[in-house]
Structure formats: structure tokens, C-alpha cells
Amino acid sequence: MEDQAQELKKMMSNNKKTRIIAITSGKGGVGKSNLSVNMAIAYAQQGKKVTLIDGDLGMANVNVLMNVVPQYNLMHVINKQKTMQEIINETEFGIKFIAGANGFSKIANLTVDELDYFAKQFAMLGNSDIIIIDTGAGIANNVLQFVAAADEVYVVTTPEPTAITDAYGIIKIITTELVDREMNIKLLVNRVHSADEGKRISDRIINIAGQFLNKKVDYIGFVYDDPVVQASVIRQKPFIIVNPTSKPAQCIKHIVGRIEKSDIGSSEGVSSFLKKFLRKN
């Protein structure tokens, strides 16, 4: 597998630095997918080329939030039935969208020929400035695989006690299971009623992670609880489009602005992502 990863790096080497973000959570129902969609659109509104990948292989719903019906997904590329260009969905919101699929972990067992084909296809995403991966919730192997390969990991939580506990839980798993990788973890608190509430919750998780895991976790921001969010889900249009002046939309724009000011370090873009994705745990 390491030899295959090295070959991938050679095939896919490019000078473009694509920022690859994995958005994850310890439990479902915290608004992770909704935030992923709206963050992707916020980047596009800044003039970035954005690709959003649905990495929730069990309960994929990103397409529903945008009212997109994908005909093909990543498994069609892995099985050589389609090219990467053929499975990319253009959306009315200025971003590109790729649907995930059950069985995507099969990539770890591809033959050399299959790996060569997939690598060349995946390299096409290197034209993106930003790739956002909406992972599944929890600690399934495919979730950790996406998390381990990304440049940055954003853990989403809410003020609910169970969500806070599960957010710490996934940070603990990432820290202990991926000890050989330097993980850049940031915390995003969704559905808060005040800025103070978001800061208080983030401080609690960050302090515990520092004390018991010796892990530095950064606070990237919060998103207000607002009826406009649920209304946009029902309409199947992202809230940053439905009501761009709403509090949640302004929060998303602020978060993206903060992310853009932060350094992504020594990332090598798509080539680095695939190298780490294929690496044995």
C-alpha cells in the first residue's frame, strides 16, 4: 500500500495547493451536512472553485439539501464505469458536488491497474481551490479515513449535553487512533443562542481535550439557532442563498473568513490527500 501511495504522489504531483477540509461530528443531527453545504457556497461566493464531496456513506443527504438528484457516484469511477468528470454535478449555487457511495472503502484493496485509473481520475479535482468532505457521523472506519487524509478537520457540536460528549469522544478517537499523524482539529458550535454560549461550550471541550488528551483544539466559530435554517431545509435551498443576511448566513461567512486567514501548512493538495487516504492505519 505504501508503494501504491508513492506512485499516486508521483502521478498526481502538481503545484496547486488545494485546501481539503473534512467536516465531521460525534453524533448525527447536529447540522453537519447543512453547514458543509453552506460553507462550500460561502467559499464560492468569494470566487473560489469549490468541490463538495458527500462522504456520509450510510445516510447521504447533501444532495437533498440542494435539491440535486445525482445519477452517478464515486463507485462508478472506482468500477471504471464513469470518469470523474462524468459524476461531477454542477449546481445552481456555484459549487460542484460529488455523491459518495456505500463500499467506497473498497479503494484500499484496488489492483494496481484500478488504482492507476482512480488516481488519474481523482487528480482532476486538483483544479479546485477548496474540497469540502461531509463525513458520516461517528467513528466508522470510512469516517476516520476521510478525517486522517484531510488538511483540516472541523468537529461540529451543539449545546446539547449528548452532542458535547460525543464531540469530545470523536476528538479523543482521532487523537488516539491517528497518533502518527498531526491532526489539525477545529471546533464549530452550531445552534447557539448567543456568542457567549458558543464560547462557553467550546472552552469546555477545548480545555478537557488539552488536559486529558494533550491535544490542541482551536475554536473556529459558532452558528446561531434560527428558524431560517429549518425553513431552508424544507425548501431544499441553502440558507445562505434563501436569506443571505440572516444570522446563520453571516456566521458562516465569518467562519469562512477566519479559515481563509489561517495557514494550511505543508499540504500538497489532492496528491497528499490520496497518499494519506490510502495509507494503512
UniProtKB/TrEMBL annotation:
Stored PANTHER family: CELLULOSE BIOSYNTHESIS PROTEIN BCSQ-RELATED, SEPTUM SITE-DETERMINING PROTEIN MIND HOMOLOG, CHLOROPLASTIC-RELATED
Keyword list, A-Z: ATP-binding, Cell projection, Cilium, Flagellum, Nucleotide-binding
GO CC list: cytoplasmic side of plasma membrane; cytosol
Gene Ontology annotations of biological process type: negative regulation of cell division
Record InterPro entries: CobQ/CobB/MinD/ParA_Nub-bd_dom, FlhG, MinD_FleN, P-loop_NTPase, ParA/MinD_ATPase
CDD domains reported for this sequence: FlhG-like (cd02038)
Transmembrane spans: none
Residue ranges occupied by any CobQ/CobB/MinD/ParA nucleotide binding domain in the UniProt entry: 21-238
GO molecular function, one term: ATP binding
Pfam families from the UniProt entry: CbiA (PF01656)
Protein name per the record: Flagellar biosynthesis protein FlhG
